Amino acid sequence: MNSLDDKKTSIFNFYFFVGLTLIVASIFEVILNNYILFKLTLPLTLMSLIYWNVATPRSIGFFWTMLAGFILDIFLGYLLGTHVVIFLLTSYFSQRYFHRFRALFRLQQSLIVAMIVLIYQIYFILISNNFSNSLIFELMILTFISSLFWPIIYGILRYLRIKLTYGQ
Known about the structure:
Mean pLDDT: 86
Oligomer: single chain
Number of domains: 1
């Protein structure tokens, strides 16, 4: 009977850990937005969300997704629910096609993540109605940087997931 209690504790810890990483990514994204003079942000929360939806598609909860979206909406000054909508759509498609995504090489995954980030950034450009040549330049730079950050985020979160799941 103790093994069931241990399993419940570890499952609770895992859910808490996933939520904690999403909230920490949101906080880092807000801090980066305050210190970098770009109008767009580096979507660390979105990339963390993609990882968790691909790595553990049935374990990620929509509560944490919505909470991370609300944190970004509040601290970045967007209409409440703007990030939540895009995060829920990303979660749905990540969970729907996680088998295909997992089978790809990291370079191919980086290109797909870059396309998702590009769509994400265009979504916020359209919401803000702020078009300029410098904004398009920022869009391309942040999309490229996001594709470079994907293997790093993937590696860190995978290491932490394996460490939490399989032993201390």
